[in-house]
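User: My collaborator sent over this chain with a note saying "see what the structure looks like." That's all I know about it. Can you take a look?
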Amino acid sequence: MPELVYKKSDQLSDKEKQQYCQLFHDVFHKTKSIKNFDRQFLNNYKGYGYHLLYICDKKIVGAYSVVPVEYTINDTPFSVGLVVDTMIREDYRNDFFMIKKMNKKLCPEMLADGIQFILGFPNKKIFKYRLRMLKWTAIADLSFYVLPINPKVFFPFFSFINPFLRLGRKIAVSIMKASASKRIYEHPIRKVINDKFLEFRYDKNYKTIDCGDDCKATYIIYKEAHKNIAYLVDFYPLSKKNFYLAMCKTAKHAGKGIDGVIYVGKLPFSSSLKLPAFKELQKVHMTACILDNNLNNSIVFDIKNWQVNFSDFDVR
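Assistant: Without extra context I'll predict from the sequence alone. Here is the result:
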């Protein structure tokens, strides 16, 4: 008999964690070990995540999982749940409303535990489902900013003038760094970066570097679509000057093997490195739902109030 079971991460047995990790592999064709599971769900300020499990014949065939993350609104504590895994095994997807049922059962449990707001960055299919069936709100689509190191990879039709493109890029970036404003931006809503967050969000594959002028940056290298990309995950303090510093220092630190540096987020200033929407590698949708009705909709649903980037999520 199918059943929906709510559990916190620290209540799951090793057998259940193993079934969860196998389900993740079956659905997303990616590996998640029990060690990865524990790092993702136990290394946060509450010490656990939330799971609504879809169980058939004593096996986990679906899961809806959320990690609690500390944010602040104008320096007031703000408890957010980040939706990280929404998955149902292919042969159990006959109930179109199953995810809605899972969401309906999980949300009151999270609210009772102090979660005020749930946030997610879904793929195209889940994005539509959340808006239409779960009545979530689309806050914004994040933007892509690209510093091409090997221009011919991004602009193959101009590969014959690649040396000139490289020279032009260096000159342009030097001018941008020299002329960029040092104004520091502080958004009303931002995550709390402490040891627990760093342990949850970053593993040994991420590199943190000193960019000078009190600016620090974190990046990770991915190979995708025949490109070696260094993703600038986060940098701070947030200013236009520091953005260009972080992009350039990331390129230098990552080495000659990369083809470009990419930053995904919403910057409060204009930049010539921003890709036009039709050139973006994929759409990154920022969606959310209020659990605590005391929250101000006009604040939490306005992207201008959020300091958001790749450090808030990893959709791959």
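A starting point for your reply to your collaborator: The first helix runs from residue 14 to 28.
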